[in-house]
Design goal:
Blueprint (H helix, E strand, L loop, with lengths): L2 H22 L11 H16 L3 E6 L2 E10 L5 E6 L2 H8 L5 H23 L6 E6 L5 E8 L1 H8 L5 H9 L3
Antiparallel strand pairs: 1-2, 2-5, 3-4
Length: about 170
């Protein structure tokens, strides 16, 4: 193939890539606008949340060409702190100044203080406890896998030669 042919194929491939990019971005089209990919991602999320199904086969002309799969977070244990006795915690923190405010702060924000003290010192203040919790799985997005050669074969003569060439041999 000549250099001129390579440049022409590159131009066609880049034009197709750029034209489709707005429809295929998982972040949405220009300025986050609704697009083909985000609509399908929303459908996969809804399907996962309603039935637990996490993968769909992609077909073109009744031929499987790929999959779209929900990415789901793995639950990971986390340490969670809770104040069981705000006054005991306040005594542990000590100091007579502002005692009522310190007790109120421990009641309202004590879990954050427990977490911070535990991270900084490795110990829990009096009146605090910890427990391990596992958050539920949550939908993270999708992974799209498509075999361009299979799409090219499935479409056969339904594509212009320039596009068919890109799909069937990867633009080589």
């Amino acid at each position: 193939m000549s250099s001129r042919d390579d440049l022409a194929r590159l131009a066609v491939a880049q034009a197709v890539y750029k034209a489709l990019g707005e429809q295929l971005s998982s972040r949405g089209g220009r300025h986050g606008a609704d697009n083909m990919r985000t609509r399908v991602d929303d459908e996969v999320r809804s399907l996962y949340e309603s039935s637990g199904a996490y993968q769909l086969g992609l077909e073109v002309n009744d031929q499987k060409v790929g999959t779209i799969t929900a990415r789901i977070s793995d639950p990971a244990p986390q340490v969670e702190f809770k104040v069981e006795d705000a006054e005991a915690m306040a005594r542990w923190l000590g100091g007579p100044d502002g005692w009522p405010h310190l007790v109120a702060l421990c009641r309202d924000m004590g879990a954050a203080v427990c977490s911070r003290v535990a991270a900084d010192t490795g110990e829990l203040p009096d009146g605090c406890a910890s427990r391990t919790v596992t958050p539920p799985r949550r939908f993270l997005g999708t992974t799209l896998r498509v075999d361009p050669a299979k799409v090219g074969r499935a479409l056969g003569d339904g594509l212009p030669q320039a596009i068919a060439g890109i799909l069937t041999d990867g633009g080589q």
